[in-house]
Amino acid sequence: MKDRIPSLVAVFLLALLVIGTWWAADYTLRSVTIDPPRRITHERDSWSEHFVMIRTDPTGIAINRLEGNYMEHYPDTDAYEVTHARAIGQQPGNPITIGTSDKAVLDQNGERIVMTGHAHLHRLADAERKALDVRSEVLTLKPNEDLVYTDQPALVINGQSTMRGTGMRYDNHTRQLTVYSASDVKISGEDQGTASPGSAPKAKP
């Protein structure tokens, strides 16, 4: 019996150690406040004044530029909201375009810019083409596709010609312009042949 006493004492102490460890762990879990999962709300997590964002192609050439007076980023939508926005497209081989608006939202991982409030797209004139202007309250730009469109009333001025309609689409790669539900089309004699009147005038300005 005396030979078993040390073993019994060791087992008893081990049992006390296990019970004490379990109690300490349980007490810690009950006494320490665990923060609940972070709730993502529409609150900005970064901002900047007079910022410039530039996107380059695989060779490092700048093809798109977005700047503005003020920018805020919202994590719930992963979108950048910009005031007094200016978006410049300068893809090689395409005419330079400049879009401006009171406000803009850059989202879809930089694939889309929605410009609102006095939205205006200006395609610079070159040796082959006259300047092109598109005005609407809302213009959606696809910078990587060099595309602009809207389903809102729009005014398109191509050289001396004007087209008004609800909805338009301009592809700067192909130079294809489509104005939907046209209500007023005026083709200048200088621009004769660049567009045809109808419900969806198309031009390659």
Descriptive account of the structure:
With 205 residues, this protein is mostly beta strands. The chain has 2 domains: 1-34; 46-203, Lipopolysaccharide (LPS) transport protein A like domain (lipopolysaccharide transport protein A fold), CATH 2.60.450.10. Helices cover 13% and strands 50% of the residues. It contains 1 helix and 11 strands; from the N terminus they run H-E-E-E-E-E-E-E-E-E-E-E. The protein has one helix at 5-31, and strands spanning 46-56, 62-74, 79-89, 97-107, 112-123, 132-142, 147-158, 161-171, 176-179, 182-186, 202-203. Strands 1, 2, 3, 4, 5, 6, 7, 8, 9, 10 and 11 form an 11-stranded antiparallel sheet that branches. A hairpin with a 4-residue loop joins strand 2 and strand 3. The longest helix is centred in the N-terminal third of the chain and has 27 residues, at 5-31. The chain is rod-shaped, with a radius of gyration of 31 Å. The model is unreliable at 192-200 (pLDDT under 50).
Sequence-ordered SSE layout with sheet pairings:
Blueprint: H1 5-31, E1 46-56, E2 62-74, E3 79-89, E4 97-107, E5 112-123, E6 132-142, E7 147-158, E8 161-171, E9 176-179, E10 182-186, E11 202-203
Antiparallel strand pairs: 1-2, 2-3, 3-4, 4-5, 5-6, 6-7, 7-8, 8-9, 8-10, 9-11
